[in-house]
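Hi V.,

You were right to ask for the full record rather than a summary. Here it is.
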Amino acid sequence: MKATGIVRRIDDLGRVVVPKEIRKTLHIREGDPLEIFTDREGEIILKKYSPIGEMGGFAKAYAEALAQSTGHLVSIADKDSHIAAAGNGKRDLLNKPVSKSVEEVLENRQIVSFTALDKGYIPLTEGENQPYGAVVICPVISEGDVIGSVIIANKDRKEPMGEVEKKLAMAAAGFLGRQIEQ
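Predicted structure:
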């Protein structure tokens, strides 16, 4: 554990303010859920909660099934990082942070499809080395909130994503969103 040197008092309602600098560094936004842990030494630990992260094994199996049936790279991400990935190039995405551009797509609740040759190309991770040939990004929505995305990508610049990949991403996102609601 790393000390920040910041001390805050608890108010009369039991609230503590998490400093803006820490929220910014950890990508914690207003309304984000935090999980609370305690230990035997009396420490309270706040951890950003990811509903998709909680279903890590299930998300991995789902990504593997989609990748196997499509032949493409498939990633299931929460709002911050790629939680599960399968297919050729999964190491390029797995556990890496999603790019700011992907975050913006999710905030706008858009389903986007593009190729590396498009002017509006969106990198999937910060500092992406080599653009993917074609990509579909679909937000996962649970109880009205965007909680992540399903991404289908390939490295072939000659093969754009079609309606089938869009529909598969939408079906996967809808299924994952419903699973989290249960």
